[in-house]
Amino acid sequence: MADVSHRPGDISGHPDVPEMRDRYARMLSGRDVVLFDGPVLLAGLYCAISPWTVHFSDSQPQLAQNNLIFGIAVAVLGYGLAMGPTRMYGLSLALAAIGVWLIIAPWLVGNSPTTGAIVNNIIIGGVTCLLGLLAAGTLMRASSRQPTG
């Protein structure tokens, strides 16, 4: 019969301790950009409902559909950043691209957009682009600090 007596709570002699420490360190280092998860999700949700809160959904139906679709996409990316940060932060530059699209969309998608629609999209696009660039920069800094191997 095997000897299973050991001190409770002491795993220092376990053969997988170094691997578990490395994995724990990687998990903690992947949370550097935790500050961006919530704001990205909120920016996406606001973008999705903005045509109805700023009241341009009736006068600009194509722009309203655009904001709804891209707002949902940004919210899903924000949710993904919160749930699986190490897998999703590669898409943070996609947030920046979506932000740029949201800035120029009133002129490309809409037809004679109102001032409210233009200002709304410039602000929400700028915020989304900034958050995407900050998340990407933080990811690049974190990945350059990690040892390879």
- Name the structural class: mainly alpha
Question: How many β-strand runs?
Answer: 0
Terminal-residue CA separation: 40 Å
Proportion of strand residues: under 5%
Q: What helical percentage do the residues reach?
A: over 70%
Structure description:
The chain has 149 residues and is mostly helical. Helix content is 72%, strand content 0%. The chain is elongated. The mean pLDDT is 84.
Give the topology, please:
Layout: H1 17-29, H2 34-53, H3 61-83, H4 85-88, H5 92-108, H6 115-145
Helix pairs in contact: 2-3, 2-6, 3-5, 5-6
Salient structural properties:
149 residues; mainly alpha
Summarize the entry for a quick read.
The protein has 6 helices and no strands. The chain has helices spanning 17-29, 34-53, 61-83, 85-88, 92-108, 115-145.
